[in-house]
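Section 3.1: Structural characterization of target chains.
Under the original work plan, the team committed to producing a structural model for every single-chain target entering the pipeline before any wet-lab resources were allocated. The record below documents one such target. The sequence was received from the expression subgroup and is listed exactly as submitted; it comprises 192 residues.
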Amino acid sequence: MGDRTEREELPGTTVLGCSPDPASRVRSWFGERWAVWAPALLLLRALLPAWRFFDDIEEAQVLMYRIEETSGKLGPWKRCLRRPPRTLGSLFTNAEGNLFLACGSVVEQLVEQLAEHMVEQLAAEGAEVCRTRTWDLRSCSSYKLTRRMVQDRIRNSHTGPPPRYQFKVEVRPLGSSEKPYDVLVSPLYEPS
């Protein structure tokens, strides 16, 4: 009753109606040409990629640090990793850009390790125990590398005696109205 098929309205014209088989509609619309062009179109589709190599970025991890000022107070938070400017030479050798990406990967790995540990702890011990127990991150290699990056940044940008410092990893949701939040705040470290 609801299914309609092709019908002749006027001599020499065909009206496409609703058919239970969508492929038959396409075949009837394209006629015999479809059988000839279908393999070529499939080959063309295989040769032209979708150009979607990466997932969409939903949030960015930002490494921030602050140093103790001469007054004894902690200063404002500053970005630790800065994207180097692109130059013509960076097309061929991009050491600064590669270092920036490697440091960003270390920060992402630290956040992932922290999240994995929290999930494991929640599953094993429950939410109450998880909130009260701390995990010694200082033994984690990505934490050590992150701390070393902050120390190098302070050493390269600060003149005078090395100050005490603190760092944090902030997550900034992209494309939404959510505010950034901290996933890790280090204790105050003495210069080394």
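Confidence is low (pLDDT under 50) at residues 1-19.
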